[in-house]
Amino acid sequence: MNGLNHFAYFCFLLIFFIKKNEIGHLLEFKDFPVITYREEVEKDRQTTTEGIVSQVLFFIEQIEELDIWDHKEWSVLPFAKDEIIELKIYLMDKNNLVWEIARQKIIICWHRLTNLASMYEEICREWFLPKMISLLTSYPEEPEIRKSE
Predict the structure, then answer these.
(1) Residues contacting 81, CB < 8 A, separation 6+
(2) Cα angle for residues 109, 110, 114 (degrees, 5° grid)
(3) Where in the chain does DSSP place strands (E)?
(4) In the structure, what pLDDT confidence band is assigned to residue 111 with cuts at 50, 70 and 90?
(5) Range 37-59 burial, b when 16+ CB lie within 10 A, else e
(6) What own/partner pairs with CB < 8 Å and gap ≥ 24 does 57-65 have?
(7) What's this model's pTM, rounded to 2 decimal places?
(8) Residue 125, φ and ψ in degrees, nearest 5
(9) Which burial class, exposed, middle or buried, applies to 81 when counting CB atoms under 10 A from its CB (0-12, 13-18, 19+)?
(10) How far from 15 is each of 18, 40, 63, 75, 144, CA to CA, in Å?
(11) Exposed, middle or buried by CB within 10 Å (0-12, 13-18, 19+), for 63?
């Protein structure tokens, strides 16, 4: 991945990562113990399973059209798209939809997408910000480290 490709896809990936954060809010699960202003304002909000499924399908339709899925430098993206499409197919089959199974599939899928965001941040940090760990792990042979005099 070179710097130009990184910045070309960065905007699309950012959109993608923001969308997956909305699903966590919709299902009322969180990865951190902080109450946000939004949660305080919407604490009496009532959601239905049909509303949640509809919103998840809406988000999937938005992110499945992004250009990130064609990003050749990161081979994990096609697998993530396949998982999203499988979730979409399951959610669209209203006759066989079981809410508890659907909720678990949504949470698992979105946790994996969250992990993608974390991995992407780590990759960018390691490749584009010079640090000792990237120097030691990114090259086929160990570099010679010279001490300044």
Answers:
(1) 64, 69
(2) 120
(3) none
(4) confident
(5) eeeeeeeeeeeeeeebbeebeeb
(6) 57/88, 57/91, 57/92, 59/19, 59/20, 59/22, 59/23, 60/84, 60/87, 60/88, 60/91, 61/88, 62/19, 63/15, 63/16, 63/19, 63/20, 64/88
(7) 0.68
(8) -65, -40
(9) middle
(10) 5, 25, 8, 19, 40
(11) buried
Spatial distance between the Cα atoms of 104 and 61, rounded to a whole number of angstroms: 20
Write the single-letter amino acid at 127: W
pLDDT band at 144 (very low <50, low <70, confident <90, very high): confident
Distances (CA, A) of 98 to 88, 93, 115: 14, 10, 26
The angle formed by the CA atoms of residues 104, 109 and 110, to the nearest 5 degrees, is 100
pLDDT at 96: 93
Q: Which two tokens stand for residue 102?
A: 């659907």
